[in-house]
Design brief:
By secondary structure, this protein is an alpha/beta fold. The protein has one domain (11-178): Nucleotidyltransferase, domain 5 (2-Layer Sandwich), CATH 3.30.420.10. It is 39% helix and 17% strand. The protein has helices at 49-52, 59-62, 65-71, 80-96, 108-123, 139-145, 161-178, and strands spanning 11-18, 25-33, 39-46, 100-103, 137-138. It has a five-stranded mixed β-sheet. The longest helix is centred in the C-terminal third of the chain and has 18 residues, at 161-178. It is globular and about 45 Å long.
């Protein structure tokens, strides 16, 4: 699957799901918004969690079952490598259309997945290690620096990466239009 964002996209928020907190990524989901905050497109790329890490305990897969069912209505399962390729395509497409790329918390999960996607792109000759490193803005850090109480926001822990990205977008939208937070320059 190739990620193509429409012209006029200004904000892209993504989320990554992994097998365990420090495990391998098995799904990414994203939402793209225009300059007035309207969702223009959303998408997902995912693999069956068992294919990503067949040695993990059954507990690590139990939480993923509802998300797999929901993601199966949006797209077909990919290979674990294709999920990483799609994350890199999302980062490149975001940059190419002049939008800013956000994640909820640049956690070990999000950071690890994006790093893996970048390394894979460099190995495939699709990125240069010196000039193509992606720039991601961490929404949680902006919330903290703006002094906003995180408790006013809905939980982003649904383990469905599209829905989690939408919840993260609600945080960003609140900061932009209600709190009038000045965001860092891209």
């Amino acid at each position: 699957m190739s990620v193509n964002l429409p012209i006029g996209t200004k904000y892209v928020v993504y989320d990554v799901e992994s097998v365990g907190l420090l495990g391998e990524p098995w799904a990414i989901g994203w939402v793209a918004m225009n300059s007035v905050g309207k969702e223009v497109v959303h998408g997902a790329s995912w693999a069956y969690p068992m294919e990503v890490d067949p040695l993990a305990s059954a507990d690590n897969y139990a939480f993923a079952e509802p998300a797999v069912a929901a993601l199966a209505t949006v797209s077909i399962a990919q290979t674990p490598e294709q999920v990483l390729r799609d994350l890199w395509d999302l980062a490149v497409s975001t940059r190419d259309c002049g939008a800013a790329l956000y994640c909820d918390v640049f956690s070990p999960v999000d950071a690890h997945a994006l790093r893996q996607a970048f390394v894979l792109a460099v190995k495939r000759g699709k990125a240069s290690p010196l000039i193509d490193s992606p720039r991601v803005i961490d929404i949680n850090s902006i919330v903290q620096f703006a002094g906003i109480d995180r408790k006013i926001f809905a939980s982003t822990d649904k383990h469905n990466p599209i829905e989690d990205a939408r919840c993260s977008w609600e945080r960003l939208r609140y900061m932009l239009w209600t709190h009038h937070t000045q965001l860092p320059a891209r």
